[in-house]
Amino acid sequence: MINPEMTIEDLRQEAQQLQKELTEHSYRYHVLDDPVIDDAAYDMMLKRLVALEEQYPELCTPDSPTRRVGAPPLAEFETAAHSVPMLSLDNGFSDEDILAFHQRNIKSLGARELNYTAEPKLDGVAVELTYEDGVLVLATTRGDGTTGEVITDNIRTINAVPLRLQKGAGPIPEFIEVRGEVIIRQADFAALNKARLRNGEAPFANPRNAAAGSLRQLDSKITAGRPLTIFVYGLGLARGLAFKSQGEMLERVKQFGFPVNPNIRSNIKIKEVLEHYRRLVEMRPALDYEIDGMVIKVDELAMQAALGEKVKSPRWAIAYKFPPTEKTTRINDIVIQVGRTGTLTPVAVLEPVNVGGVVVSRATLHNADEIKRKDIRIGDRALVTRAGDVIPKVVKVFPQERKGNEKPFVMPGTCPECGSAAHRSEEEAAVKCVNAACPAQFKERVRHFVSKKGMDIDGLGKKLVDQLAEQGLVASFADLFRLDLVKLISLERMGEKSASNLLAAIEKAKRVDMPRFVFALGIDHTGENAARLLAQRFETIEALMDADYLAIESIHGMGEKTAHAVTRFFSIPENRAVLREMAAAGVVIHNTLYGGADRNTDQGKSHVFAGKTVVLTGTLTLFKRADAKEKLLALGAKVTGSVSAKTDYLIAGEKAGSKLKKAEGLNVPVLDEEKFKTMLEGGA
Ligand code: IVH
Question: From the centroid of its chain, how far is CA 197?
Answer without folding.
Answer: 21
